[in-house]
Amino acid sequence: MSLTQFLENPPYEAQPQEKQNIYEQVINILGDTADNKMKDTCNNLDTDQQDALMRYIYKGLENNDNSLKLLKWHGVLSEVAGLGCIMRVMSEKRKRVL
Predict the structure, then answer these.
(1) What angle is formed at CA 61 by the lines to CA 58 and CA 64, rounded to 5 degrees?
(2) Which CA distances in Å does 27 have to 52, 64, 86, 90, 93?
(3) What does the DSSP 8-state code read for residue 52?
(4) How far apart are CA 19 and CA 94, in angstroms?
(5) The predicted structure's pLDDT at residue 96
(6) CA dihedral 46, 51, 54, 59 (to 10 degrees)
(7) CA 56 → CA 38, 87, distances in Å?
(8) Residue 89 contacts residue 58 (beta carbons within 8 Å)
(9) What are the residues whose beta carbons fall under 8 Å from the beta carbon of 40, sequence distance 6 or more?
(10) pLDDT tens digits, residue range 30-86?
């Protein structure tokens, strides 16, 4: 599956093992994406997909999974999606757990 496909339907209600498997695949895709492709990738996502990507980035940073690459993704996504993306993810009343 592609990153876009994972972000179209995040596994918020899935079983923990399924969530973990999808999370690992997303983190691998992010890690394998060339730095010069990040901006195009982020530009091709809609707002909901950008928010889901930000959730994965924060979870990866929390887990210390490829943090350097995830910080690059965070910078690019923040530039493309704006501060609203960060605010929506950080201020959700009901935290969506990935």
Answers:
(1) 155
(2) 12, 11, 19, 20, 25
(3) H
(4) 17
(5) 67
(6) -140
(7) 15, 15
(8) yes
(9) none
(10) 999 999 999 999 999 999 999 999 999 999 999 998 999 999 999 999 999 999 999
Q: How far apart are CA 30 and CA 24, in angstroms?
A: 10
State the pLDDT confidence band at 95, using cuts at 50, 70 and 90.
Answer: low
Please report the sign of the dihedral spanned by the C-alpha atoms of residue 75, residue 41, residue 86, residue 31: negative
Q: What distance in Å separates the CA atoms of residue 78 and residue 90, rounded to the nearest whole number?
A: 13
Average pLDDT for residues 81-93, to the nearest whole number? 91
pTM: predicted TM-score of the whole model, two decimal places: 0.92
SS3 72: helix
